[in-house]
Amino acid sequence: MFRYQVLLLLLFTLFSCQEEKQHFKVATSSKGGSYYTIGTQISALFNQKHPNTFLEVVSNDTLSSSVNCQLLLDKKVDFALCQNDVSFSHEGVQKVHINSILPLYPEICFIIFPDSLNPQSLRELIVGKRIGLGPKNSGTANFMTHLFKHFGILPSEYTPIYTGFDENLLSHPDIDVSCAMTGFNNQRIQRILTEQNGKLFSLDQQRHLFDNGSSVDGFCLLYPRSKKFIIPKKLYQIAPEEPILTVAVDAILLTHSDTPQELINEFTQTIIHNSQLLSNKNSLLGQLSENFDTQRLNFPLHEGARIYYERDKPSFFERYAEMIGVVFSIFVVLVGAISSIQKFWHQRQKDLIDEFYIKVIKIENRTKNFKTVEDCIENIEKVRELKNEAFLLLVREKVRADESFRIFISQANDTIRYIESKRQFLRD
User: Fold this and answer.
1) Which of 63-72, 196-205, 296-305, 331-340 has the lowest mean pLDDT?
2) What is the pTM of this model?
3) First vs last Cα of the chain: how many Å apart?
4) Which of the four CATH numbers 3.40.50.10490, 3.40.190.10, 3.40.50.1860, 3.40.50.2000 does domain 20-309 have?
């Protein structure tokens, strides 16, 4: 009996000394959305690699990019997936309390319409139609409003239909056109295209697929969180029949700024070190990388993630000390060369004006020898021609409007007046 009690005491002591699991939550979306799939896979990976930590996936039909951000602000979750262009109320000063960890995958803009329609423009497709946009506060609804406005389509010209993500289908009785911002392998998109006779709308013509200058390029300049995206031919078995030009916005993994740096550093390291494993499980994460432009992030990078990304980087001067020395030497030589060129060019411009000045002086000196009114008129015209020629050179930036130029103009005007007085004398 005594041995049994000792064994129980040892077991109790062992389990009581074990470190209590840390519990965190990540906000995703409905179970039919890409956020839920990605969030589940990342959570499973993190829980496997860190047994003392448990990352719980939060999922329901009301979650969206803006809702997820609000949950972060309210500290009801610790992580969230959302669209990189998300906007939500009270974003002002509170926006700094949300931090980015890393971009996960591109969310593509899908505009799907029944194959019974043959729209020649986005306006023709949207105006007067009932447009499925998913939840009212979703990233899709927000993004499509901006996209439609760019193409001159006002909110009053179509009827937005707000549903859950999983209900945003062409088969829905109230939806004429279904719009979605989601990953390319979303089963809902494939189902609409292959089972509901849906077709994808291309935002510009075929000739703009691989070059610049399309309407999509213009939109991306004005909406810098977005980027051009091409949906390949036959991506979804029989659809699309031709490549589709559209836009995309990155899905981003977020956290609260108060989340400990050590946790975020560890979390980021786990994802990056296992990116190949994640990619094998979900092709959406095939482009997962720590090499991305932080300037394109809608929210500032969390300090824990930044420390990880910059872990092996030497300081700027250490990395570029030799190059800086070479560049500085080249800079000194260039400054000297530019200075010499400027002096030469300025002297050349001055010499050119001096030629005009000398010509005017010669005309003035001949004025006393003029015998007729016609001589005066002829030479006045010559001076005016010299003035016009000088101004033409000024416009073409062959000469400068400096003191030499002003002296020439003043001398030319004085010469004209002098000849005019000579002409008046000869006339009288």
Assistant:
1) 331-340
2) 0.67
3) 148
4) 3.40.190.10
